[in-house]
Design goal:
The chain has helices spanning about 20-35, 35-45, 50-60, 85-110; strands spanning about 10-15, 15-20, 65-70, 80. The protein is an alpha+beta fold. A two-stranded antiparallel ribbon has the order 1-2. It has a two-stranded antiparallel ribbon with strand order 3-4. Strand 1 and strand 2 (about 15-20) form a beta hairpin. The termini are close together.
Length: about 120
């Protein structure tokens, strides 16, 4: 029999409004790697329209820009994360890591106490 594991999901809200979760973090990470919302959308299997809508929703919830775009030209265009976005993304990732470790530790303690199988 496969061993049972406990899992958790963490997201951020601002003023009770959803801001950022795992799927958005994946999108933002792809924007950082790819330097383009279009390429980031492809990398995470979203349409450009959906990716852009998610970024706009995050910006509205956050109250500040999440990405900064530079128009094309001789060097080409680029999209990067704002410092505020990087801070939120890093906090979400660290919180998710800590919560996951705590959930696993607590689940193991229940298993070791004979409360779960």
């Amino acid at each position: 029999m496969t061993e049972v594991a406990a899992k958790s999901t963490v997201w951020l809200e601002r003023g009770g409004q959803y801001l950022l979760g795992e799927r958005e973090a994946e999108l933002l990470g792809a924007v950082e790697r790819e330097g383009s919302i279009k390429e980031a959308a492809k990398a995470v299997a979203l349409s450009y329209r959906t990716a852009w809508a998610r970024i706009q929703a995050m910006e509205q919830a956050a109250g500040h820009p999440m990405v900064r775009s530079r128009a094309g030209g001789p060097g080409g265009g680029a999209t990067t994360l704002t410092d505020e976005c990087r801070t939120l993304l890093n906090r979400l990732r660290e919180l998710s890591r800590r919560v996951g470790a705590t959930v696993e530790r607590e689940f193991q303690s229940l298993t070791n106490d004979g409360h779960a199988t």
